[in-house]
Amino acid sequence: MTMTHEATTRRLLSLAVSAFVVLAAEPLYLLVDTAVIGHLGAVPLAGLGVAGAVMAVLTIIGTFVEYGTTGRAARWFGAGRPDAAVNEGVQASWLAVVIGVVIVALGEAFAGPMTSLLAGGSGPTQHAAESWFRIAVIGMPGVLLVLAGNGWMRGVQRTREPVRIVLIANVLSAVASPLLVYSAGLGLEGSAIANVAAQAVGGVLFLRSLRRAAGSLKPDPAIMRAQAVVGRDLIVRAAAFQVAFLSAAGVAARMGTAQIAAHQIGLQLWEFTALLLDSFAIAAQSLVGAALGGDDAAAARRLAWQVARWGMYAGVGFAAVYAAGWTLIPRAFTSSPAVLGQAHVLWPWFVAMLPAAGVVFALDGVLIGAGDVAFLRTITVVAAVAAFAPLNVAALRWHWGIGGVWAGLSAFIAVRLVGMVARTRRGKWIVLGVAA
Fold this sequence. Notes:
Elements: H1 5-38, H2 42-62, H3 64-78, H4 82-119, H5 124-136, H6 140-155, H7 160-183, H8 188-213, H9 221-255, H10 257-293, H11 297-324, H12 328-331, H13 337-369, H14 373-397, H15 402-426
C-alpha cells in the first residue's frame, strides 16, 4: 500500500484533524459540565473534581483497547486484510465490555474508600464525590467501547465516523446535563446520569458500525490475549505519566497556594496543547502500522521522520504563541498578583519544552504503531524515576520553587526525546508483516 509523498501528507493531516476533534470533544464537554456544577456551590464542584480524578485513573486501565488496537488493526489494513483489521476491533470490543463490567463491580465495591482517600476523609466533599461516582462508573463499559471503536476505525483510516459519533454523544451530554441538574432538580447526580447516557449512546453507535463492518462478532481468545500483552506495557507507561504529573502537583501544593494555582494554569495549558500534539501521534500510529503491515520499511521510516517534523513544527508554533502571550495569557486565568508572579516563573520552562514535546508525542505514535510498546514503557519509567523524580524532590528539599518542579517536567520530556530519537534512528522498531 504505497502512497506518494503528497498523498501521505494529506492522509496524515486528515487523520490528525480527525483525532484532534475526537480528543478535544471530551475536555470541552468537561468544561461545560464543570461550569454547570460550579453554580451548585463549592461542595458539589469539589465532589466532581474528586470523583472525576478517580474515573480518570480507572480509565487508564482500559486505554490499551484504543491505542493497542490502532497499531494492530493498521498492520492488517496495510497488508490488504481489512477483514482481519476490523476483527481486531471486534476482539477489543469484547475486552472493553469485560473490563468495563469488572471496573463497575470494583468501583461500586470500593467507591467509599477511593473517594475518601482523595477527599482526605469522610465529609461533605467525599459524600458528593461518592454519589456522583457510583452513578458515573456504570458508564465505564460505554467509555471503553468508544475507546475500542476509535482504535479500530483509526487503524482502517476511517476518519469521519469517529468524529460524528463522539460529537453526537458529547453534545447529548452537554444538553442533558443542565436539564437534569437544574430543570429536573437532580443536582450533582443529574450530571452523572447525563454522562452515563452519553457513554451508552457512544458505545452503541460504535457497536452498530462494528456490526456493519465485521464478518463475525465471535470472540477470539488468542487475539484478545495478544491485545492484553500490548495493554500491559501501555498501562505501565500511562501509570508513569500519572505518577509524574500527580507528584508534581503534590510538590507544588506544598510550596504554597500561589504555586499550586500557577501550576494548575500551566498544567491546563499543557493538557490543551497536548491535544494537538497527540493528534499527530495518533495519525502516526495508523500510517506507520499500515506501512509495516504492507512490508514497506522505507515508507515507515520516512513517515516516522515526517510526523516528527510536523510535531516539531506544531510545538514551535505553540511555543511562539505562549512566549508572545506570557503576560496576557496567565491573566485570562487569574488576577492574583502572587499567582501571576509564580506563573511567570514556570513560563520559560513550559515554553522551552514544547518543541521537544512535539517530537516526543509524534515518535510516541510511531513506536506504538510499530508495536514497540515495551521500549516505550521502559523509557517512560526511566524518565520518571531517573530524571523527573530527583529534580522534583530537590525542588522541595532545597526550595527551588515552582521553577524546579517544571525543570523536572522538562527533564522528563528531554530524557524521552533522547531515547526515542535514538530508538527511531536505529530502526529496531521496524518489524515487517502483521505479526509485530
